[in-house]
Design goal:
four-stranded antiparallel β-sheet, 5 helices, Jelly Rolls
Length: about 170
């Protein structure tokens, strides 16, 4: 299997599968809700989920959400010993993912795409996969992104996060 990067969208219907390769999913717009080995997470922009090969996972996303997906024969060493499959990504990685999105939309040549995969893998080696994601805050950020044209009250955002207003502000 050749390592590859692709842009994907998923359906709101829950899907479940496993594959014979590793996968790293990086949201570009919106969020993905995913369960891996009974560990549930909501992953949004600036975050990632690492799915090891042969691991069954269930997921769904809003139709307008978009993702950069890396299908990899091998994970970098720093991604094998994760406490959780969910992590934050560095600013450099997020910026590069945005660049990849633009390039893949124009279907560049295969030589350029293979070089993008190599640089992506180098950035993965420098990635700190230890930061944990707070699913409550991810839900709020996704809500704000979906409703940019509307004013959001503090009470509404606290409710979405399942936190009290004082804890949400803290």
């Amino acid at each position: 299997m050749l390592d590859s990067l692709s842009l994907r969208a998923y359906t709101p219907s829950v899907c479940s599968h496993e594959h014979a390769f590793h996968q790293i999913v990086l949201p570009l717009h919106g969020v993905i809700e995913i369960s891996i080995n009974d560990v549930y997470g909501v992953v949004g922009v600036g975050q990632t989920v690492v799915i090891q090969k042969a691991v069954k996972h269930r997921f769904h996303a809003q139709a307008e959400s978009r993702f950069l997906v890396a299908d990899l024969a091998e994970l970098p060493k720093n991604a094998y010993s994760l406490e959780s499959p969910f992590a934050l990504v560095s600013g450099a990685m997020q910026s590069y993912c945005t660049f990849i999105e633009t390039q893949l939309q124009y279907q560049m040549n295969t030589e350029l795409e293979s070089k993008m995969v190599l640089l992506f893998k180098h950035l993965l080696l420098a990635q700190d996969f230890s930061p944990k994601i707070n699913n409550r805050i991810t839900r709020v950020l996704a809500y704000i992104e979906r409703n940019l044209n509307e004013a959001c009250s503090l009470e509404e955002l606290a409710s979405i996060s399942n936190l009290s207003i004082s804890h949400f502000k803290g």
